[in-house]
Design brief:
Elements lengths: L13 H12 L5 H21 L3 H4 L15 E2 L6 E2 L1 H13 L7 E2 L3 E2 L5 H17 L7 H21 L10 H15 L4 H13 L16 H21 L16 H5 L14 H5 L13 H17 L6 E8 L1 H7 L8 H4 L3 H11 L9 H4 L2 H7 L2 E5 L1 H8 L8 E7 L8 E3 L9 H17 L4 H11 L2 H6 L2 H6 L4
Parallel strand pairs: 5-6
Antiparallel strand pairs: 1-2, 3-4, 5-7, 7-8
Length: 483
């Protein structure tokens, strides 16, 4: 006979407590974090506006029941939808992730911390509109930036040492956890209720990564984060009712997250929560491409120019070798048929072939009308990846966090181009100063996709002014994005 299992309710897991104490008590003092959060905000919203040009995205947007309008509900930027905060979070989260163009965090686990903006902005807007209707003060955009910094930090710090992809789980589990924590705090939950909410996020079912990998790569990867951040809002609202939590959701023997989903291993942490992740986040500025390929795309653009200068063509290429890091090979080194845009933007060979051939890589280049060019697949077949262990080490080095790629082109006549090396993409912190002007230009381009000139100018006047943005009521800022 086995010994009886104790039914004494344990203390909450330290991982939960640390998240809640950080969200409830920690004061963000870093000016750099707030400045970067503003850049992150405008870049993320801009990505969402660009996604509205794609019917595959917009078909998922709007209320669950067509025609539903929620009084004092959250508005979805770039649309006329006004929804409950759960569905608004799904809409916003889906828009900003659709084209794989928003920010990135690379460590033991990968992800896109600005995915959390779906839940944060929807909740803040909804609260602000209801506060004003009741004669109370609205939330300000500084509150949104603070929540963004904290959500980035929770997602990113857990990701530093804990690989969910190695056990087959998708990184959106961390979006769900981070969004739940910050949204619960925004909703005014007390400490015990926030703790309950975060435990509910961990006990929830978690997404498999299969929709990101061959042979199942598909468009769910573009709405998975919207699903996660909207679920976070739902769980926080459930906890607000007084619904109980599960204190040892991670550590409970047999039935906890560690034993069921993490091969029995507890989480490891490299650093305490602060504002590190927002300060070091990676922006996708030039190319809508999976981040491990960003430097490879920069190299490929240079190859395009060298080919033009030399008079050679892609047909003259015998082989392209990508010297890269292990994560790139594990995620996006892909041969064989590519079945849809989601398949193509997770194939490094495709993302290198297009700029070599055309001198560009845009979101439209993943669509069928471009992908059907046989020259792309012909060149893809000539591109191979090899790991450079030094690049892998530098990828994990906390002082470097490089995302290096180096490309060598060999020609049929036996000649070759000198290897082109790029260690840090334009969106890296080490190139932040150079990247800001380009990031702002990207935002201007995305505003112009959706709004008339006068409306663009109003948005820009506030969005590019840190002090003006921080003090602006959330609902007034969101109203500027309504068409």
């Amino acid at each position: 006979m086995s010994a009886a299992i104790s039914n004494v309710r344990p203390k909450a897991d330290k991982v939960l407590v640390d998240i809640v104490d950080y969200v409830m008590k920690y004061k963000i003092s870093s000016r750099e974090a707030y400045d970067t959060a503003r850049l992150c905000l405008i870049d993320t919203l801009g990505c969402g506006l660009e996604a509205l040009e794609y019917p595959a995205c917009t078909k998922l947007l709007g209320p669950v029941v067509p025609g539903t309008v929620v009084p004092h509900g959250a508005k979805v930027p770039g649309t006329q939808f006004q929804l409950d905060p759960i569905q608004a979070a799904f809409n916003i989260g889906t828009m900003i992730r659709w084209l794989d163009f928003n920010d990135t965090w690379l460590a033991a686990e990968w992800g896109h911390p600005s995915d959390n903006l779906g839940g944060i902005l929807a909740t803040a807007d909804w609260l602000s509109r209801n506060n004003v209707a009741a004669g109370r003060a609205a939330l300000t955009m500084r509150d949104v930036l603070t929540a963004m910094i904290k959500a980035h930090e929770i997602q990113g710090c857990i990701a530093l040492e804990n690989s969910f992809n190695r056990v087959g789980l998708d990184h959106v589990v961390l979006v769900k956890v981070a969004s739940t924590a910050v949204v619960a705090q925004m909703l005014g939950l007390n400490r015990e209720e926030v703790l309950n909410a975060v435990s509910l996020a961990w006990v929830d079912g978690q997404s498999l990564r299969t929709y990101r990998h061959a042979p199942n790569t598909g468009s769910r990867k573009s709405w998975a984060a919207g699903d996660a951040t909207s679920r976070a809002v739902r769980l926080a609202l459930i906890a607000k009712t007084g619904e109980m939590g599960y204190p040892s959701v991670l550590s409970a023997k047999t039935w906890g997250f560690y034993d069921v989903l993490f091969k029995g291993q507890p989480f490891k942490f490299q650093r305490p929560y602060g504002s590190y992740v927002m300060e070091h986040v990676l922006f996708k500025i030039s190319y809508p491409a999976e981040f491990h390929s960003q430097t490879a795309v920069e190299c490929a653009m240079e190859i395009h120019e060298r080919l033009k200068a030399s008079g050679k063509r892609a047909d003259d290429i015998k082989r392209v070798t990508i010297r890269t890091h292990e994560a790139c090979i594990r995620i996006i080194d892909k041969k064989g048929p590519l079945n849809n845009p989601a398949d193509r933007d997770h194939c490094v060979q495709y993302m290198v072939a297009v700029p070599i051939l055309y001198g560009r890589l845009t979101a439209a280049d993943y669509e069928d009308d471009v992908a059907n060019d046989p020259a792309i697949d012909a060149l893809r077949d000539k591109i191979v990846c090899v790991e450079d262990p030094a690049y892998t080490l530098d990828y994990h080095n906390v002082d470097k966090r490089s995302i290096a790629n180096a490309l060598t082109v060999e020609f049929n006549d036996g000649s070759a181009l000198d290897e082109i090396v790029c260690e840090y993409p334009i969106g890296h912190k080490r190139r932040r100063t150079d990247g800001i002007a380009l990031l702002e230009a990207k935002f201007r381009t995305n505003l112009a996709r959706r709004f008339p000139t006068k409306q663009q100018q109003r948005i820009l006047a506030v969005s590019l002014d840190q002090a003006a943005l921080e003090k602006m009521p959330v609902h007034e800022y969101v109203d500027m994005y309504v068409i």
